[in-house]
Specification:
Family: Belongs to the MenA family. Type 1 subfamily.
Radius of gyration: 18 Å
Strand content: under 5%
Distance between the termini: 52 Å
Pathway: Quinol/quinone metabolism; menaquinone biosynthesis; menaquinol from 1,4-dihydroxy-2-naphthoate: step 1/2
Structural class: mainly alpha
Order of helices and strands: HHHHHHHHHHHH
Keywords: Cell membrane, Membrane, Menaquinone biosynthesis, Transferase, Transmembrane, Transmembrane helix
Low-confidence stretches: none
Number of helices: 12
Pfam family, one: UbiA
Shape: globular
Main location: membrane
Largest sheet: none
Number of strands: 0
Helix content: over 70%
Length: about 290
């Protein structure tokens, strides 16, 4: 039976910035619109956290029963390592999705933004079929697209819309930036896993692009948020403070450009996630001041 520590590791806490960052960025854009409500933002954050933990357990389960994680380089996988029974990990995933659904319904009910139910359902289905089902889209190189949509556009714009009833171009810019950061985290993860994914038949975008192409793609993705920052500054100078977060990417960039492989790429995920979170916080502060 898996220990509490192993369950926490299986939830992959290093990915949590991917859930927190879009909500924080969305809060900044919401304040800029003069429509911020703290409890609605908190509920949006709970939905995002439940979804990302759920998708992590769902991936653990689906990859584990397929044998994809039999020779794992990265963090512990509960099913692949044999630390937990597949049914328990599946139950954990479904529980998290249930929490996300219930909290989301509460948020929709009190705000009256009923069409967001469809978006929430799409997020849960997207989380499951990433590696679940007969033809998981994560095995066809579409994982990055889904991350951009769900943890970029949907999470940021959903946070704004549920409170303000509309979105702004500032919110859209933040959504694109956070989506690119989230994609970069997944790209780094899949770069590390190219050798084992090829053997397992998991044709991720990294497998399609190859090692060199994936490294170039990562560098392009982490540049986009800073282009967005400069564009935001044309109308709102304060978001320029987010440029300082580029310093957090020095180590990841060295690892990517220096040819780091295997365990040497694990810190890239953490540092990219932290840079994303820091960028979101400072951009939100900048938009709020503006």
């Amino acid at each position: 039976m898996a220990t509490v520590t192993e369950w926490i590791e299986g939830a992959r806490p290093r990915t949590l910035p991917n859930a927190v960052a879009p909500v924080v960025a969305g809060v900044g854009a919401t304040i800029q619109l003069g429509a911020f409500t703290w409890w609605q933002s908190l509920l949006a954050l709970l939905v995002a956290l439940a979804l990302i933990i759920g998708v992590n357990f769902a991936n653990d389960y689906s990859d584990g029963i397929r044998g994809t994680d039999a020779d794992r380089v990265g963090p512990l996988r509960l099913v692949g390592s044999g630390a937990a029974a597949p049914k328990l990990v599946l139950t954990a995933a479904l529980t998290c999705f249930g929490v996300a659904g219930v909290v989301g319904l509460v948020l929709v009910a009190v705000t009256g933004r009923w069409w967001l139910i469809a978006m929430g359902a799409a997020c849960i289905l997207g989380a499951w079929f990433y590696t679940g089902g007969r033809k998981p889209y994560g095995y066809a190189g579409l994982g990055e697209v889904a991350v951009f949509i769900f943890f970029g556009l949907a999470a940021v714009l959903g946070t704004v819309y549920v409170q303000a009833g509309r979105i702004s171009w500032e919110a859209l810019g933040a959504a694109v930036a956070v989506g690119c950061f989230s994609m970069a985290v997944l790209v780094a993860n899949n770069l590390r896993d190219i050798p084992t994914d090829e053997v397992a038949g998991k044709v991720t975008l990294a497998v399609r692009l190859g090692d060199a192409g994936t490294r170039r793609f990562y560098l392009t993705l982490i540049a986009v948020p800073y282009v967005v920052t400069v564009l935001l500054a044309v109308w709102h100078p304060w978001p320029l403070i987010a440029l300082v977060t580029a310093l957090l990417l020095r180590t990841p960039v060295r690892a990517i450009t220096g040819g780091g492989t295997g365990p040497g790429l694990i810190p890239v995920l953490k540092d990219t996630g932290l840079a994303m979170l820091a960028w979101s916080v400072l951009t939100a502060v900048g938009l709020a001041i503006s």
